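My current task is to audit a protein record that another person submitted. Please read both lines and tell me whether the tokens look consistent with the sequence. Do not assume that whoever made the record got everything right. I have pasted the whole thing underneath without changing anything:

===
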Amino acid sequence: MRTLLLVGVLTAWGALPDVAVAYLTIGKPAPFFSVESGEDENLTLDMLRGKVIILFYEAREVIRKNGEFKDYLKSLYNGQPEAVKENVFRLVVINCSEASFVTKPIWRRKLMEGSMRQGMTVYGDWTGTMLKDYQMQDHDSNFLIIDGNGIIRYAAIGLIENGQFEKIKELLLNLANNE
């Protein structure tokens, strides 16, 4: 309940960034998703129940757009105690719906290479279903926070400005410590 109140207060005061776009309604359940890694590992929303999901959904040409913010989040995550890390799942999804039968092996290899660079599994949205169901902006950087109950708590498209990092940090730490 405190979490819902905090998000409501932050939103009402305008503390969350102007870049936040309610393409999905904040406070509503996240749509089901199923994504697949380059190693054929499937991941669904249901598999992540109980964890705060930090989600980046991007097209391959904009992966570096929020590099500074991603570095900030990585440092924040790495600096947390294991008990907090266990409550958080960092999810990177690349729109792979352009892959064809011929190019799919190349896309899979690129996902595996990205996973190695990131130090975490990068998943592909092979059908474009997540793009559509989440009303993501194609060819841009989409960022969401989904709480452990599957409720969307934050949504943004485009560049996350440095001035917003601390506000997002406060929301994430509140959610992760209450899960």
Summary: The helical segments are 2-12, 67-78, 82-85, 104-118, 129-133, 165-178. The chain is about 35% helix and 20% strand. The chain has one domain: 2-178.
